[in-house]
TrEMBL record:
Keywords of this entry: Methyltransferase, Restriction system, S-adenosyl-L-methionine, Transferase
SUPFAM superfamilies given in the database record: S-adenosyl-L-methionine-dependent methyltransferases
Lineage: Bacteria, Bacillati, Bacillota, Bacilli, Bacillales
Record organism: Paenibacillus alginolyticus
Protein's name in the database: Cytosine-specific methyltransferase
A UniProt-annotated Pfam family: DNA_methylase
Record-listed E.C. numbers: 2.1.1.37
Active-site residues (renumbered): 87
Amino acid sequence: MKNNDNNQLTAIDLFCGCGGLSYGFVSAGYKVLLGVDNDEAALNTFEKSHPDSKILKGDLSKKETIQKMKEITNVSTVDLIIGGPPCQGFSLTGNRMIDDERNKLYLGMLEAVKEFEPNAFVLENVVGLVGLFKGKVKDQIIADFTEVGYNVQWKILNAADYGVPQVRKRVFFIGIKEGLGEFEFPESIKNEGNYVTCGEAIGDLPSLEHVFGEEVSTYPIPPQNEYQSFMRERAEKLYNHVATNHTEQVKHVISLVPEGGNHKDLPPGVGEHRKFNEAWTRYHSQKPSRTIDTGHRNHFHYKYNRVPTVRENARLQSFPDDFVFYGTRTQQNRQVGNAVPPLLGYHLGMKLFKYIGGKYVKV
């Protein structure tokens, strides 16, 4: 194994965004050497939330980026490469053209795997990839990584099954170097009967009913459950908790949507300009949230007539409260929505120890 002195396995995170997947692996005891992305605001967040990691702003479709990665890390090999190539080309709502260049961004990850020869890799993407073009994209990904010496398994995982208060389904491809075994995905720790709910996740945060555009940094009450205690464990104050000041008309429309409802529950003629599937969706306090997206206009708090704050959505993604997001609020929302939930990353990281060595190191 290629562990360092304290037995931490090393990893590189490609298309890292703000670092949700990295954060999960760091929590499991890995040392993430480098995060690579082309989004400057997301990299700023990554750098500040991963003080032991370096960053590189680069285009992973270019060979010179791989060489820069080697120069920055000063290593020729790592234990693990993780990443989630941008998924717009694979999206059910996107272009879906098979020659979309974004469908080939995983090739940047393939080149990095060939160059660094890790013992394993983790590739995450949207569920729509699995059936896209009758499975051709999925099959090509598996074939390409198999050809360079990896035993590849794939599975659609629901983040809620791993303690994340959000129904978020994504496909994961995990490749183990030939000779090290065949990866078995971690078993669920939750089921539909005991998922962490929205109320359990964010019920302790300030309501912000009469505070708009101003960050509220104090907690009004102590944590009320295990999940809230976990989120607040290392936080001395709140960050990124800023309410949007909606127009009276928008607040009125939101007020007409029942808990757990959406645009279908609105009276005829109300909210007609937004009637797609996720429009005017109010969270339910007794259920996990719907999938957090990169915007902030479609989902609403289960109790208050406003969109969730960046911090509320971060909680629903399992980011702890001491993980601070930087950039404009639009950039912050994009970072949260694009991220792999850290708690899901943690469980994958823990399971991978069985195949690539190492052990949990408390950090």
